[in-house]
Amino acid sequence: MRPPFGDEEFPAAPYPGARPDVSFAHLNGVGAPLRPDRHSPSGWRVDHTGDDLDDWLAERDAVPMSGRVPVLAYGSNACPSKITWLRESLGLTGPVVVLRARCEGLAAVWAAGLRVVDDQRPATLMADKDAVEEHAVWMADPEQVRVLDACEGRGRRYRLARVRSGHVVLDDGAVVDRVLAYIAADRVRRPILVRGKPVRCADMDQAAAQGLVGKRAGSDGLKASTVDGEPNPDTWPKRVFVYGTLQPGHEAWHLLEPMVTGRPRRASIRGSLYDTGMGYPALQLDGDDEVPGWVVPIRSPRRTLSTLDKYEGPDYRRIRHVLPDGVVCWTYVWTEPTHGMDLLPEGWRVSA
């Protein structure tokens, strides 16, 4: 068990500041380490209390994990003291969830220009097929994204984009495809090239970086698409895991089939499946059975999920869940008691 830590253990100066080597939830100058837990609906537990992260967030009137978007933090935003600065200077509110991430094919490099506020050199993101770096992903609620927009000068210094380059994997094994990131918009936020090569932040500290002399790169090499407006949490991921009446060939497949793009594939998750006795099953994550189902890629996730939410009703809760291969899917877990229900160790077999 890792105890909470204070901001003083991770100073913000010099940029980009110090980072914990653990995923954490930050509030009131204190970071609470997190650990992955596949039995937990949120996928995470607060290490020192054992609470499900969503329960911990609910106690603080905060947005659950399903209502947050993944934003790559490759500069100072993974530093707890910087997070407190965002609270004090830009009005950041609520718990901030910061998940440690392994990034392959992406590098934090020094930018061509210095920051006006303190003459320090900021980081910028670049594609680098040989890079393997440890960074973090904020699971940010809508208001927190607005604060990050202000901090990063969205549309001026940096642009918010969905990055298709590289490979981002969280501590729980989740693969964050099309991760959001603030990447260079202004030319001075493009990488600086010294003798024709970028300089990785991991290879040079701030003091040395301030004295760099070189040329501005023409491109960051990233495959990325700019996000217009506020990113919606429902748009990631673009797939659902279905295990009951919504499976191909079953009673409610006709609701989902028109919204499918690509070919569904068979998969399973660990948990317990029960027969409600009402013509549909109930999934809970507290067991070790292999619950069979299908991963279904969907178009227009916001519209699709709205339809599925109405179909599933109030007895189910929609969550993101990580499959054994790291693929993240939306799925629905049962929220009511299962006392008296029969277990279905072989899965839901009733077909239309």
TrEMBL record:
Cross-referenced Pfam families: GGACT
GO MF entries: transferase activity
Gamma-glutamylcyclotransferase AIG2-like domain ranges (all copies): 240-347
UniProt keyword Transferase, yes or no: yes
Domain of life: Bacteria
Leader sequence segment: none
Record SUPFAM superfamilies: Gamma-glutamyl cyclotransferase-like
Keywords assigned: Transferase
Protein name: Gamma-glutamylcyclotransferase (GGCT)/AIG2-like uncharacterized protein YtfP
